[in-house]
Amino acid sequence: MEEEGMEEEGGSGGCEAMMDDQNHNNWGAGDYGRHLLGPAAAPLGDRLLHGPAAGPTAGTELPAVPEANGVLRGCEPGKGGAGAIAAAININASTSKFLMNVITIEDYKSTYWPKLDSAIDQLLTQSPGDYIPISYEQIYSCVYKCVCQQHSEQMYSDLIKKITNHLERVSKELQASPPDLYIERFNVALGQYMGALQSIVPLFIYMNKFYIETKLNRDLKDDLIKLFTEHVAEKHIYNLMPLLLEAQSTPFQITPSTMANIVKGLYTLRPEVTSHARELEKS
């Protein structure tokens, strides 16, 4: 399925009205069918349920019904009987998919997630001031459609896995850093990640609102900060703190701004571990 541009959905209300299942989507058969086919679907539905007496009067044309390779012209009462009705409702799978604008799990995996995956990659690895050649509007639209089509759980799982793998690579790179570069590289990794979250979290706002907050009772930003804490900060904090204390007593070893950034960041991630290091920020 080809991705479309950003659609005017009338704000979050359009999605809210549809959401009521495990991923907050309401796919009630009756109302959903009327929503897709409009008021014209009612006469045909009544005729199928109650027989010819409840349907249109003689001479009235039923609405055109799509078929596999185009449009099936209106089925006239009395011409074809049950066979005509069967033909009218025998919409093949691809046409039904088109009418309902369904995003299957295959569509999600082959079309939607790859676009999100590529955008996340660029956001996680960008440097301050870099131009990122991605369409925020398109990514926002991808997320919105996937949430409304019951793929929130899969998308959240993919996002967490993607970022976890990235942070594990960052941690390994830090472990290979020499002591004289360790502090600066940790500062870059911390700043780069926190900067990426400023774009990633808003792009996934619909998933956060209708899945993470509603079903998991959590917040996306908190979850992503926790990932950095678990996969980077907790693995390096006990190596980092002695170096910071040493740098404090060695003039010009690191800049005051680097010291302040690291201490503030670590305090946000692990206040119980770094509370005694707040004094570094004041020096």
Element layout with pairings:
Elements: H1 13-16, H2 29-37, H3 41-50, E1 65-67, E2 70-72, H4 81-89, H5 93-100, H6 105-125, H7 136-148, H8 152-175, H9 179-203, H10 205-216, H11 220-248, H12 256-269, H13 271-274, H14 278-282
Antiparallel strand pairs: 1-2
Helix pairs in contact: 6-7, 6-8, 6-9, 7-10, 8-10, 8-11, 9-11, 9-12
Structure description:
The protein is mainly alpha-helical. It has 14 helices and two strands. It has helices at 13-16, 29-37, 41-50, 81-89, 93-100, 105-125, 136-148, 152-175, 179-203, 205-216, 220-248, 256-269, 271-274, 278-282, and strands at 65-67, 70-72. A two-stranded antiparallel sheet has the order 1-2. A hairpin with a 2-residue loop joins β1 and β2 (70-72). The radius of gyration is 28 Å and the shape is elongated. The termini are far apart.
Key phrases:
single chain; 283 residues; mainly alpha; two-stranded antiparallel sheet; 14 helices; elongated; disordered N terminus
Beginning-to-end CA distance, first to last residue? 58 Å
**So how many helices?**
14
Overall form: elongated
Determine the mean pLDDT.
73
Quick structural overview:
The protein has 283 residues and is mostly helical. 66% of the residues lie in helices and 2% in strands.
